[in-house]
C-alpha cells in the first residue's frame, strides 16, 4: 500500500467489519474495526478518500430473501465515525447509480461506507460483473480484510483484477498478518512449538500434518486429545472422541515419531460427570477415564509439562483452547497455557495466537499485549498455516 500514491484518489478498501452485535445492534467487540483504522487513516492523511466495503453476518436467508435489518452496515457507521473522529457517509446500496454518484462526489479526506456486500448474491459467487461494478467506484484497491482472505469472493479477490498491479495493495493489517505468519512458517527461531486445541481432530487435520513438517514440539489439548488416547487403546469414558478418526490419529503419532517431532498429549485431565459447569469433577489420567465421565480440561501434570515445553521454545503458535474454557471449572488449562506463552514471550520468544477461541481467552485474561501477535483471522489463519495460498492474497500479488 505504501507504494500507492493516494493523492486525489478514491481508494476502494475491503475491510472486515464483520463484528458481533447485541440485540440492540451495539457492537460488542470492535477489534476488527480498530484493526482497520491505520489503513483508512493513512489513505486520508495522504490525500485520498476511502470507500469502504465489508460483509456483516450471513444475510442470505434459506428462502432466498435478505435479512437487511440485522445485517446492515449502517449499524457500524456511528462507532466508526467516532473512532475516526469524523463523520462517515453511508450508502444503502453497494453497486449501481446511487453509489456511483456518491463515490464520484467524495472529496479527499472523506469516508464512504457501502452497504453489506453479501446483500448481493454475486459477492459469495465471486461474480465477474458484480466485481466490475464494485471496481468502477475506486481508482485504487486496497485489501485489508485478512479474516476473509481465504474466500474467493467478489470484494475480497475478484475485484482486484480490475486494477493494474500498481493500483492495488495490502492494507497494514493484512501486511502484518502475512508478515507475522511468515515468521512462524519461514525460518522460525527454534525450538518451534505449535499448541493445538479445540473440539475436533478432523477440523485441524491439515494443520496438524503441516505442523508435523515444521515444528519441534506439537502439543495437543482440548477434546482432540481423546481421539489420540482412544486410538492407543486408552479408556476415554464419554469424552468427545471421533471414532472414525482413530486410524488417522495412529498415523499421525507414527509420523511424529518418524519425523522426530515431540508429540505431547495431556497426561492427565479434569474429568466431569456431565457437560456442565456445576457437574462433579476430579482429576484422572487421560487414558483411564471411567465410564460415565468425560475429559473437559487438561490436568495439573499436563499444565506443568506443556508450560515447560513452552518455556523452552523460541517460536510459539497457538490455536484452539485446552478445554471447555467457557465454563470456569474447565478453563484452567487454557489460562495456564496463555500465561506460559506470555512468560515465554517476555523472555524473548515470538508468539502468534490465532483462532476465535484462543484469542477470546487471551483477551479475557488481558494478555493480548503479552503475545507477540494476535491474529484477526479464524478460518483464514488456519488455511494460511495449512500452507494454502489465500485467494485474497494471491489476487494482489499476481
Ligand atoms: P474449535 O472451534 O475446534 O477450536 O473448538 C473450540 C471448542 O472446543 C470450544 O467451544 C471448547 O469448549 C471446545 N472444547 C475444548 N475442549 C473440549 C473438551 N475436552 N470437550 C468438549 N469440548 C471441548
Secondary structure layout:
Layout: E1 10-14, H1 31-45, E2 49-53, H2 68-71, H3 77-84, E3 89-90, H4 97-104, E4 111-113, H5 121-125, H6 128-135, E5 140-143, E6 168-170, H7 172-185, E7 192-196, H8 201-212, E8 217-220, H9 224-231, E9 235-236, H10 246-259, E10 262-264, E11 268-272, E12 281-285, E13 288-289, E14 294-298, H11 300-311, E15 315-319, H12 332-346, E16 350-354, H13 356-364, E17 373-374, H14 379-385, H15 391-397
Parallel strand pairs: 1-2, 1-5, 2-4, 3-4, 5-6, 7-8, 7-15, 8-10, 9-13, 15-16, 16-17
Antiparallel strand pairs: 11-12, 11-14
Helix pairs in contact: 8-10, 9-10, 11-12
Adenosine monophosphate is lined by residues 198-200, 203, 222-223, 240, 295-296, 320-321, 323-324, 326, 355, 357.
Describe, in plain words, how this protein is organized in 3D.
Helices cover 37% and strands 16% of the residues. It folds into two domains: 10-173, Rossmann fold (3-Layer(aba) Sandwich), CATH 3.40.50.1260; 180-385, Rossmann fold, CATH 3.40.50.1260. It contains 15 helices and 17 strands. The strands form four sheets. The chain has a six-stranded parallel beta sheet, sandwiched between helices. Strand 7, helix 8 (201-212) and strand 8 (217-220) form a beta-alpha-beta unit. The protein has helices at residues 31-45, 68-71, 77-84, 97-104, 121-125, 128-135, 172-185, 201-212, 224-231, 246-259, 300-311, 332-346, 356-364, 379-385, 391-397, and strands at 10-14, 49-53, 89-90, 111-113, 140-143, 168-170, 192-196, 217-220, 235-236, 262-264, 268-272, 281-285, 288-289, 294-298, 315-319, 350-354, 373-374. Helix 9 (224-231) crosses helix 10 (246-259) and helix 11 (300-311) runs parallel beside helix 12. The protein binds adenosine monophosphate (AMP). Adenosine monophosphate is lined by residues 198-200, 203, 222-223, 240, 295-296, 320-321, 323-324, 326, 355, 357.
Amino acid at each position: 500500500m505504501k507504494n500507492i500514491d493516494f493523492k486525489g484518489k478514491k481508494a476502494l478498501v475491503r475491510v472486515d467489519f464483520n463484528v458481533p452485535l447485541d440485540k440492540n445492534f451495539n457492537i460488542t467487540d470492535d477489534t476488527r474495526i480498530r484493526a482497520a483504522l491505520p489503513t483508512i487513516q493513512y489513505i486520508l492523511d495522504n490525500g485520498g478518500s476511502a470507500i469502504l466495503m465489508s460483509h456483516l453476518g450471513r444475510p442470505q436467508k434459506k428462502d432466498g430473501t435478505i435479512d437487511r435489518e440485522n445485517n446492515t452496515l449502517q449499524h457500524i457507521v456511528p462507532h466508526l465515525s467516532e473512532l475516526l473522529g469524523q463523520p462517515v457517509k453511508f450508502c444503502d446500496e453497494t453497486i449501481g447509480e446511487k453509489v456511483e454518484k456518491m463515490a464520484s462526489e467524495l472529496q479527499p479526506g472523506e469516508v464512504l461506507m457501502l452497504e453489506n456486500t453479501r446483500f448481493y448474491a454475486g459477492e459469495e459467487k465471486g461474480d465477474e460483473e458484480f466485481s466490475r461494478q464494485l471496481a468502477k467506484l475506486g481508482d485504487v484497491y486496497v485489501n485489508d480484510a485478512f479474516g476473509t482472505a481465504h474466500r474467493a469472493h467478489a470484494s475480497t479477490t475478484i475485484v482486484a483484477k480490475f486494477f493494474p498491479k500498481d493500483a492495488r495493495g495490502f492494507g497494514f493489517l493484512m501486511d502484518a498478518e502475512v508478515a507475522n505468519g511468515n515468521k512462524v512458517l519461514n525460518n522460525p527461531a527454534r525450538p518451534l512449538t505449535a499448541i493445538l486445541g479445540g473440539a475436533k481432530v478432523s477440523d485441524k487435520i491439515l494443520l496438524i500434518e503441516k505442523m508435523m513438517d515444521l515444528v519441534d514440539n506439537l502439543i495437543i489439548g482440548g477434546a482432540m486429545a481423546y481421539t489420540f488416547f482412544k486410538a492407543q487403546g486408552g479408556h476415554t469414558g464419554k469424552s468427545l472422541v471421533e471414532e472414525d478418526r482413530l486410524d488417522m490419529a495412529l498415523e499421525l503419532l507414527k509420523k511424529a515419531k518418524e519425523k522426530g517431532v515431540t508429540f505431547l498429549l495431556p497426561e492427565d485431565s479434569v474429568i466431569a460427570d456431565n457437560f456442565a459447569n456445576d457437574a462433579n469433577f476430579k482429576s484422572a489420567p487421560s487414558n483411564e477415564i471411567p465410564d460415565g465421565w468425560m475429559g473437559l480440561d487438561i490436568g495439573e501434570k499436563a499444565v506443568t509439562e506443556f508450560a515447560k515445553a513452552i518455556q523452552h521454545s523460541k517460536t510459539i503458535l497457538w490455536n484452539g483452547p485446552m478445554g471447555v474454557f467457557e465454563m470456569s471449572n474447565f478453563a484452567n488449562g487454557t489460562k495456564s497455557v496463555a500465561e506460559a506463552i506470555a512468560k515465554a514471550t517476555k523472555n524473548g520468544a515470538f508468539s502468534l495466537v490465532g483462532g476465535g477461541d484462543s484469542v477470546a481467552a487471551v483477551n479475557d485474561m488481558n494478555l493480548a499485549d503479552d503475545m507477540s501477535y494476535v491474529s484477526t483471522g479464524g478460518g483464514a489463519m488456519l488455511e494460511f498455516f495449512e500452507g494454502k495460498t489465500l485467494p485474497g492474497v494471491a489476487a494482489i500479488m499476481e
